[in-house]
Amino acid sequence: MRTFAVLPVKRFGVAKQRLRGGLDPATREALVEAMFTDVVDSLLRAPVERIVVVTASAAARTIAADRGAEVVADRELGHNAAAELGIDVAVRGGAQQVLLVPGDCPALDPQELAGLLRRSVQPPSVIVVPDRHGTGTNALLLSPPDALAPSFGPGSAQRHLELARARGTDAQLVELPSLALDIDTPEDIESLTKVSDGRARLTLRLLSQPSAC
After folding, report:
1. Using CA atoms, how far apart are residues 129 and 132, in angstroms rounded to an integer?
2. Residue 132 CA to chain centroid, in angstroms?
3. CA separation (Å) from 106 to 46, 126, 149, 166?
4. What is the pLDDT of residues 68-82, one digit of tens each?
5. SS3 at position 188
6. Residue 183: pLDDT over 90
7. This model's pTM is above 0.70
8. Under 8 Å between Cβ of 90 and 127
């Protein structure tokens, strides 16, 4: 099945405002860039046919283009609008399913992701990958790409399931440990530093520098 990964990304300088208390602006921006790069590098090792990055960030555009990803200009109307823009591009490109992933899960494991994509599903179907709290959505696998209109935000894991089932679409909640940890708080950073198997390479390298503490 032709799978496209869609990755909406904010401009690095305005992302992760909840980390302002622990990181200075330059370090926070560098952290966002490192996480995004780690995610793209992991997707390159996963069985996805194309990566579509939706962003208004010049730096993100350069990183994505250098790695062969397709870059789409974000109109900055919010995360869901950016996700839908990426889905539209994937549909026009012939995608049979779309994986929506965030740029702040740097520990993403390509092998775990491959296992998710190998799951036997009968379209239309929606797979929701929750965050570690079980409330947010850290990834959506949509087969076909228009199986659901994304509705990210607080409580989105249950909302996505309900929206899919209201349409008569098969919906499953599937936990992926490497996608459970999105980095929003100092506590999340502390959890990430315990990763020791080669994932999140650039992010952990940055966090190991004394200036990041």
Report:
1. 10
2. 14
3. 14, 23, 25, 33
4. 999 999 999 999 999
5. helix
6. yes
7. yes
8. no
